[in-house]
Amino acid sequence: MDKILLKDIKLYGYHGVLEKEREIGQYFYIDIEIFLDLEPAGITDDLGNTVDYSVVYDIIKDINNKNKFRLIESFAQKISEGLMSNFDKIKTVVVKIRKPDAPIDGDFGWVGVEIKRSRENA
Asked: What pairs with residue 73 in β-bridges?
């Protein structure tokens, strides 16, 4: 299956279990993999036959800006739902969210989640 990739989307959000995280905020890094058939777009050179990745970015940014999730699992789920509901062409979407400044007393690069959601007929 073909895919569209958006990597290292950097957004400042107010997500986290701790109240401090939802007040001060921090950066989140998001990767998206959108699985769909890109052959029609490749043949026709027509944006109508693919998924406009600028709209994908805007959907993710809007979800980030309008919410304060306690769990990044919920954040990822909302992104997957937003993308699947806006684009019928998407068969499967993988959402990965990295949180480099998680409130953990230790030395680590980042924590994160990765979810994969598919249409039932995909």
From this structure: none
